[in-house]
Each structure stands twice: as C-alpha cells, then as structure tokens.
Amino acid sequence: MSEPARESIPPPRPRGFWAEAWNRYRRMPLAMAALIFIGFLAAVALFAPAIAGTKPVICKYKGRLYLPCLAYYNRGWEPVVFARDKFRGEYPANLEAKDPESWAIWPLVFQDPYRAVRRDEWPGLPANPARDQGHPSSRNLFGTTQTGVDVFAKMIHGTTVALLVGFVSMGIAATIGITVGALAGYFGGWLDVVFSRITEVVMCIPPLVLILALLAIVEKPTIWKMMAVLGLTGWTGISRLMRAEFLRLKSAEFVTAARSVGAGPGRIIIRHVLPNALAPVMVPITFGIAAAILTESGLSFLGFGQPPPSASWGSLLNDARSNLKMWWLVAFPGAAIFLTVLAFNLVGEGLQQATDPRLREARK
Amino acid sequence: MPLLEIRNLVTAFHTPAGRVPAVDGVSLSIERGTTLGLVGESGCGKSVTAMSVLGLVASPGRIEAGQILLDRDGRSIDLVGLPERQLRTIRGGRIGMIFQEPMTSLNPVFTVGNQVAEAVRLHQKVSRQAARARALELLRLVRIADPERRLDEYPHQLSGGMRQRVVIAMALACEPDLLIADEPTTALDVTIQAQVLELLADLRQRLGMAILLITHDLGVVAETCDEVAVMYAGRIVERAAAAALFARPLHPYTIGLLAARPEHRRAAADPLAAIPGMVPQPRDFPAGCRFHPRCPFVREPRCTAELPSLRELEPGHLVRCHYAGDLGDPATVPAEARAE
Fold first, then answer.
1. What is the pLDDT of residues A55-72, one digit of tens each?
2. Cα(B203)–Cα(B205) distance, integer angstroms
3. Which residues of chain A neighbour B144 with C-beta distances below 8 Å?
4. Nearest-CA distance from B281 to chain A in Å?
5. Residue A24's pLDDT band (boundaries 50, 70, 90)?
6. Which residue of A has its CA nearest to B196?
7. Which of A158, A321, A354, B192 could form a disulfide with A21 if both were Cys (CB 3.0 to 4.6 A apart)?
8. Quick check: ipTM above 0.85?
9. What is the dihedral of CA B4, B8, B9, B10, to 10 degrees?
10. Is the pTM of this model over 0.90?
C-alpha cells in the first residue's frame, strides 16, 4: 500500500455542493445586492405593522399588556377589550382618556395603510390631505391617495402582500412541480404518460384568464385564492425540468449503487436524486416568484385584486389612473414593483451561474 | 450446496426493434469463499448477468427464465421472482456490488461517511453515531489513509482509487456472503488496479466471502480467480478451474482471447494478435454456434447450423464447441474476414 502521506499543509475544509455554489454566488456583486435587497424587503414585510400603523406595537391598558398591532396581520387578532371600550381604531386619544396610567410603544410612522388619519388623532398631527393635495411631505413621505390614505404606509404593508403572493404561489407550484416531475421521471411508464399529459393540459390554461374567471364566480375573492390559482397553474415548467433531471439521474451509477446496497425507491428519490436535481429548478422558481408578484400587481392595477381596502402596490397604481397629476401614486409603487421583480430576476440569474455544471467543471 | 447457483438464466430487453436476449441460458455456480471470474468482450452479457442476480435489470429488460438460487443459512432461495421488498434485504445484506466507474458511483452531494453509514443503516437498526463508527471501521478495513478526515469529505475530493475503496466499503457494510465486482479496476490506473485487486483478495480471505469478478482482463483473472467462466454473445462458452483454463483452453474463442494478450507476444515488435470481427449484436446472433463467423476452426455445415451444447470434456472443464479437443488446423482466413 502506498497511499500518499499526510500533507503538511492542511487541506481546505470539505465543502458540499451548496457551499460551493454559495461561494460562487457571493462573488457576484449584482446578485448579492439583489439578495440583500430581498432580505430587506422580507424584513419590511415581516415588521410592517411596527414600521407604519396607527395601532400600538405594545401597550399597557388597565393593568394588562396587549399587542394591538397584530390586527394588521389578521383582524381577528385585535384584542377584544379595545372593541368593548369603543376605541374604533383610534388608539392615542382613547388610551389617554380611558386609562391615564396606560403607556404604549408606537410604530415608527403613525399612518394607517387602510384609512386616512384624522386631525389630532395623534396630538398635533394634522389630517391627511386628500384628493390631489397630498404631495409627498415630511408627514406623508410618499404622499397620500385620493381619499387621504398615506402612500408610504400602504407600500410598507403592500410589501407583505407582494412577497406573500410570490412565495406562497411559488411554494405551491414548486411542491406540485417537483412531486409530479420526480414521480414521472423516476418511475416512467404509464405514470409518466399520465403525468406528462396532465402537465401539458395545465400548460394550456392561461392563469390570468383563469383568475379572472375565478374572481367572477367566487363571492369573496381573496388574495389567497389568487395565490392558489397562480400556484396551481404555475408548476408545469418546474415539473418538466424536474422530470428531465430525474430521467438523466435515475440511470446514474450512484443511483444503481444505492439500489445495490438495498435502498428503496422512496429513499432514492428523496435522498439520492432530489438533492442532485434541485439546483436547476431553483432558477425557474425564483423567476416564478417575480412573475407572480407582477401578475398580482397587474390584476390589482386592473381592479381585479383584493377588494378594498387593500394595501397592494398594484391597487395604488389603480388609484393613480383617475388623476395622473398625482405622480407619486405612480412613481413610488411603480419603482417598488420594478425593483422587486428585478431583484428576483437577478437572484435567479445569479443562482443559474452559481449552480451551472459547466462553470463548476471549469473551476476544477 | 454452492453459495450462488444460476440456472439457465435468460434476461432479455424488449425494445421497439424487438426482443434482445442479452443473457441467453447462462448457468454458473460459486462456492463460498471462492472467486469466480466472468470473462468476455464488451456487450457479451456479463454485466446484465450481474444485474440480474441483484434484480437490478433496468426496464425494458426482464428476467424471462431461469433460477438464481442463493444459499441463505442452509436454505436455498430463488432470487428470480422474489418480491422487491425481500430483494432489498438481499442487496447489500447478502450480496454487495461494486461498479466500474468509481467517479460516478458515489453521490456527489453527500460526504463519504454519510454514504457508507447509510449502507449500514439500511440493514441494521443502529444509531447515527454507531453507523458512523461502523463507517470509520469500514474505511479502515479498505485501508483508506486518514479515515477520520475522509469521513467528512465529498467524493470529488478523493482520487479514483480512493473512491473505489469507498464503494467497496459501502458494499461490505453488512458483511455480505457474495461480492459482485463489475469491472472494478477498468477505470483505474495500473498501479491502483493492483492495489484494489490485492485488497479484494485480502478481504475475501478475512471475511470469508465469495467474489464474482466480472472483467475483460485475463491478466486479472489469472491473478485472482479460482474458477473462470468465459461468456460470448449471451452464453457461457467455457467453464473451468482457472489453472486448467489457462493451461489448456478448449474453446476457439478462449484460445483467441489468450493469444490476444499483449504479454503473449514473443517480442515487443510483434503485432498484437486479434480475433477478427466484432461481437454480434444480440438481435442478429448468427444461427448455429454464435462464434462461427469469427472462428478460425469453423467447419461446415455443423458449426453454422447446429447450436453446440455445453459439455464436460474433462472433469470440471465445460466447453460449448462441437469440435473442442479436436479442432484441427485453423483456416487461414475466418469466414467473417473472407466476407469483407
């Protein structure tokens, strides 16, 4: 036996495929900036009620602590005590009047995404200007809408909507696409024929038309139903890529090797083939998120989105149609949509480059 | 009772162009603790035979006939027609397999230790730590230098010889009774080849397992095998003890193979001897003896019309040739070369 002796220089730490990919991704400044921007958006989306709102983040009222800001996530989460004490959504004055002992921590910007702030609702703060008077100012950073709702607050809360649409609909699409593609590719035969035909049928359905049809039928069109439709129609590309990867990998020698040590089909699909097939579908998933955000904005712009009061970027653009002199209703949400879609596309492109097998080979 | 006995195995592929019998009536047997070499040119059905034993023949291939009897604690079970669930306990548990390409037979996204430990955990209910400890032990068994470090490395960080050792470690995870080695050294450097063969011989002795060694390298066979079976066009054409086969090959094909070895030349300047022609494609196997178009000893009309049977010419020495032992003088040009 003449194995090479232990080298004196310590070898680089072992790295897996994803660690290598991350290493390459990190060196792409544009893709990295896009990823950081998406991280920033995600933080904004998550903490939207603490950034802009008229409900305290946390307050002490009649001896107990409450988190009224949670109502922005789900209306049902607003503590009942405030409804019983007839706050009617106006916290600052009511807190003061009904319990002098109370205190509260407020969001960074006292503006509501769903209604105009009235005069002296916050001590000393004037009422939001309405109609075409709501130019951007120090009080309303991005101006106000026709009805006097603060655009900045709307956009902060709209981030949640945009990212939710992107991630949830693509999450549905990825789950279906990966499952269908993996099963069709691995088992082949009649299962492949059936799944491939189903995929082709679904490909023929234009999601926009389906959503419009659905919105016409369904009584309460919510954003969740829109996400479901986008997810249920958007998985075909992922499924076809996945199928191709599985066709290629199922005859790979390491799969035969895994079978020869007694691994069953479930284990081979999930543990051996899937991790090797995942890299190529990450790219269409990322592009899909961008497309879903764009679709939602487009539908809201056309007025087919979530019924008002909604805080979607697209619905702000819709508001702008009535008076194009209110440029701030176009510029800010437009820029937000543009930058977000661009960022997701840049991340997708970066992923493509970081996981490209040809580039990987070249580095060896 | 032999450890493994294959009887009249027929494995065929059903392609759009028709039925292709890649393995056509192969019978073999391997005793415990011995090494059987299965020799033949590319495409003669060696690997399909091995895959059939593990039930791993990929669609559209199918085992159509025959028995594969495995001795399991004194009881013989037929692997043909065994339900998939039971086959999985055989694979890796009783029969391990190693492959030709160590570059591709390890999963690129998992560490070496991870993969060896998985092979352990598939058959034994042990904790993660215990499986990892066993993986380390196995890497030591296959003599990988610095096994603690290798455990956490990825396949692309290892050399070809090292990877083949890892593949062997995986196959040995549950101490199988039989190790099928499908051209284990073909993709390796000559020096590494010798090391891997030496390792296999050593492991066979230490673990008392039998080895089915598939190769086209007669030098490897001469060094490591107790018995040899020569395959041609889906059939066994000669079977004998290794010493007997090399001393006195009986089938014209075996004679040709032995003559074609580079070391058989008298001087380095001599041209390499070759068997003219190509192995026929399974869908157009010739009638009669399948070797007759390439056989220098061919005699009309028997060789072209009648399929020879595998007969025991000498004790333990079987050959599938009408005129074995009495071949006469070779024709100057075999039929296929004449046709060209």
1. 888 888 888 888 888 888
2. 5
3. 3
4. 22
5. confident
6. A1
7. A354
8. no
9. 180
10. no
